[in-house]
């Protein structure tokens, strides 16, 4: 008895060609418009509505190696896998996250007028005028007065201004030695606190005589200036009504 020849079970040529065309997009090597490493998947899965079994096997092989060699790819796949396992999978490509709107540029603040910028200094001058009549004394032409008259006026100015300084400022000498004492200026001294005069030559330390011990402000207790007040007014004009 003659046996019938065994027929090949391979699919027809047309079906094989279609299957190969389905698998071909998942080939190794760089794909068009792909900036990833050579092992590259050509596009999102939503572009393939129905994948055949060979295509899925090839995709599983590609994803396996890409997860191993590409950390960004693994980080992108992990949330999708977790969503699928938890039953929160939503078919289709995820909607892109909207970019935050840029913050508006900060508005340029208006320049502060000089009288507001130096309001504390004007307030101190106003207090010296109120307590010691300092502005009146400085604006007066003392050349027409005798020394006795100038001395008497200076005593009043001194008393009032000293009161203001002691009330709002705490002062102390820069150097504790008395004037005329011998002092040594060390190396690396603060030029803001010590000024050298006379024959200045060479490098410190310097030995010399103290001409003035200097003053440094230790504490400031100025009151805040109210915005309702005009700091330019040092002393208001006084009008006595009849």
From TrEMBL:
UniProt source species: Stigmatella aurantiaca (strain DW4/3-1)
Highest taxon of source: Bacteria
Protein name (Swiss-Prot/TrEMBL): DUF2760 domain-containing protein
Bias type Pro residues, positions: 95-113
Domain DUF2760 residue range list: 118-240
Region (Disordered): 92-114
């Amino acid at each position: 008895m003659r046996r019938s020849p065994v027929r090949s079970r391979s699919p027809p040529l047309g079906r094989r060609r279609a299957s190969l065309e389905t698998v071909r997009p998942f080939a190794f090597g760089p794909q068009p418009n792909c900036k990833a490493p050579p092992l590259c998947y050509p596009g999102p899965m939503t572009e393939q509505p129905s994948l055949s079994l060979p295509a899925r096997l090839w995709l599983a092989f590609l994803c396996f190696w890409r997860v191993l060699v590409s950390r960004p790819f693994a980080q992108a796949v992990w949330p999708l896998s977790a969503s699928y396992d938890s039953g929160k999978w939503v078919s289709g490509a995820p909607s892109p996250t909207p970019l935050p709107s840029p913050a508006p540029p900060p508005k340029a603040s208006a320049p502060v007028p000089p009288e507001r910028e130096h309001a504390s200094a004007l307030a101190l001058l106003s207090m010296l005028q109120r307590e010691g009549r300092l502005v009146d004394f400085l604006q007066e032409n003392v050349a027409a007065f005798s020394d006795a008259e100038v001395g008497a006026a200076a005593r009043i100015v001194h008393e009032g201004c000293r009161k203001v300084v002691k009330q709002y400022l705490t002062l102390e000498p820069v150097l504790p030695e008395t004037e005329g004492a011998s002092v040594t200026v060390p190396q690396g001294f603060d030029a803001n606190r010590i000024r050298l005069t006379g024959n200045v030559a060479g490098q410190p330390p310097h030995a010399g005589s103290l001409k003035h011990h200097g003053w440094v402000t230790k504490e400031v207790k100025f009151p805040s200036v109210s915005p309702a007040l005009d700091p330019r007014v040092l002393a208001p004009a006084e009008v006595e009504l009849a």
